[in-house]
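Dear support,

We are seeing what looks like truncated structure output for some complexes. This example has two components. We would appreciate it if you could run it in full and send us the complete token output so we can diff it against ours.
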Amino acid sequence: MKNNKPKHNIKKLDATILRTATNYLLPLLLLFSLFVLLRGHYLSGGGFVGGLIASIAFVLHSFAYTTRRTLRLFQVPPRTLIPIGLTLSFISGFLPVLLGQPFMTGVWFADKVAVIGSVGTALFFDIGVYLVVIGVVLTILLTISESD
Amino acid sequence: MLTLIFLTFVLGFGILLLKKPVQTKFVALISLLPFSIFLYLLSFLRSVKDGVNSVLYRSEWIPSLGINLDSKIDGLSLLFGLLISGIGTLVYLYATSYLRGHPLLHRFLSYLTIFMGAMLGVVTSDNLITLFIFWELTSISSFFLIGFNNEQEESRASALWALAITGLGGFFLLSFGVIVGAITSTYTISDLLTQSDVLKDSPFYLLIIVFLFLAAFTKSAQFPFHFWLPGAMKAPTPVSAYLHSATMVKAGVYLLARFTPILGGTMEWSTILLVVGGITMTYGAFHSVFRKDMKGILAYSTISALGLLVFLLGIGTEIALYAMAVFVLAHALYKAAFFLITGIVDHALHTRDITKLRGLKKYFPLLTVAAVIAALSSAGIPLTFGFIGKELIYESGLHYIDYNLSLVLVGALFFTNVFLTGSGFLIGIKPFFGTPIKDYCISHKPDWRLIAPPVVLGFFTLLLGILPVIAYKEIILATFSAMNGAVVEMPLAIWHGVNTSLLLSGATIVLGTAVYFGFKCWNSSMNVVERFEGIAPKNIIAFIVEKFRQLAFRYTWVFHNGYLRSYLAVIIVFFIGLVGYKLFADVPLSVNTVGLSEFRTYELVVFLITVVAVVFAINTASRLTAIAATGVVGYCICLIFVFYGAPDLGMTQFAIDTLTTVLFLLVMFKLPAFLKLGNSKIQFRDAIIAISFGILISIITLQALVSPADKDISRYYAENVYTLAKGKNVVNVILVDFRGFDTMIEGIVLSIAALGVFSMLKYKDDEE
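Here is the complete output from our reference environment:
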């Protein structure tokens, strides 16, 4: 990128309250999104909603601080979450094929795990969806807010 | 077999990683890949030799839809498979020298390998759907091969034409498969053999064969779809030799031959094939002698040969099927040799214009031998394999059931063969004999990798020509039986005594030679042919395409004019028209208010808030207010979802609404100032649209309550959610398990959208 001038013409707003709130809200919302993701198989929730909630958390952060600060929270650009998520979904769909069953058959571990319940390919599929949604939403929103 | 094809694909992609190693001299080793496939396929000869047996491999893919990766090897598959891998071996060897030092050689070899895998898939598939998939893969990989010189405009255009025409054919092949599958409830080709009568008696028989023919004719460059083939000659010569003589263009012929025992033998079948094949073969043969470019001549003579094969399938008698099997082999041997020779000449002298080439014998002694053998085989001189083919071709014409018609058939065959003989001589004889026009400066001395392939092909032409019984016993009988459905012995021999077909062969050679010598005379009158270019199918189709594009532009301009508001108006008005019409025309409207529940206080409150927010959104003078107001409307809808027991929906809607509002805010700063664009007239119009849309949706909702609905699916989900998917939340289990495939595809769609936004905005940034 050639122009180094700050892309944000948001003046130095007095965003202290928002920032302080965000500092607490971001981890809380992320935890909540994970909660929604994991409970999805039994109660309302799921990867899609969970992903949206997590995205909202980051969008809130970008409002309180700046897009650049939000991007700095990630080690890699959020768009890399997209292929990771898609691959995870695909692998969890493909796993049964290796076990001799049709594509996308649910395969489950025999033992239940505390809190989460039964762990199976569907969960990993959902995690894949979760990552894709975060990746997509943040890529779109942050790209738009970054561009002049 | 299947493993082999997949291994080929894996290797094909693997070669892409070998950018450096392919530039070394060890690259010739890559031809061991097709060669080992060739040897492997040879091992099947014994199993299918007697023409009765075939080797089947079954493996399930999507058994619930009847789509399986079955392969079947019988004589017909094996003949084509051997041609693909055998000529493939030679082409690989040749290409490594022809494109030596080309920076993208690894890509070329990769495309070639993928193409070979797809082609093997086409000829061994025993399932209509997998056949279609491999068929499309050949179209796609050949697109990359034809457009390999992608910095040339013409090359790209030719590749696109080839893809468009063969892709159109692929569409018809799929339609064919679906209809056949619907009628017989199987996609397995070997099962269709027993259902031949069902298909022939079906009212859709004509439609089925027309779809099949369109698929085959586009791929095999039959009139009027032939024009992509001369264009495809822009490809590097090894590609032309491989795709356009021996393999891809014969896929259409293979398809017809494959379905001959299932669908063939009817009046419609033979009439269409005779007419189209007949036109193609005479048209192609006649055109071939009016070209100067060696590849142009070869393109048209190939079109003609393909027409001839289709014609023979149209005759459809036993002897014609024999002739077809022999001619496939004979043509592949001599035509591939012609292409390879052309490539060498072009490579060494940088010209393919036959009027500028003479006396090359001195420079390429061994190549001249190969060229002469190929020319003699194409002319059908005894002791070459082409002779055997030509005899059988005339025999099949002479022994047609209808005597009067047989005269016409023989006439057409004779005409074609005369011109094919002439054009064969133009390629194989003319450039090599006589005195050199000038002292050619040979820039690239061809090495053994270039010379060997045509010589090997020439060797086989002679071997099978002298001892046709080898070809007959090993493969031709089996090929014939696969097409005929029953074994009929008809041994090939060099000498049948003096009979009509021998006399015709003799006359062909004499007249063909006359055509060859006449070349000079009408060389000057070539513009006669050019004058008819205006009505050539290529130009007609190009004209239609151009008009279609203009239409598309105009259409797009009307509906896709860049104003979001008019998109919305168009979509909604269209919806109102379509659904409204259907609703009032077909459904007895009865709104049942009895079953509706009472308004509860908090619902009333939410409703009022919604109305107020809507009024605000419409009347405000500030964009921010409008956005906030629509956000309020969205949240109210979420609440309604929650009230009526759809918490999942409510939750998702809530998150989506939040993000949409944020998105709005983000773009808000970039929009021009908020103006009241509409005058009262426009506002009035919009109000009518909006109100009628709202009324329509309300009616549909109320109507849905009283309409009987099929609850089987939802009941199935509800009952099986725990037993099958170990979940309790039906909505989410549907998303991740029952219909997880949809979710995955939707994930891909979302990703593409994100990539689109990202690349558009970032690209713009970088340009600034």
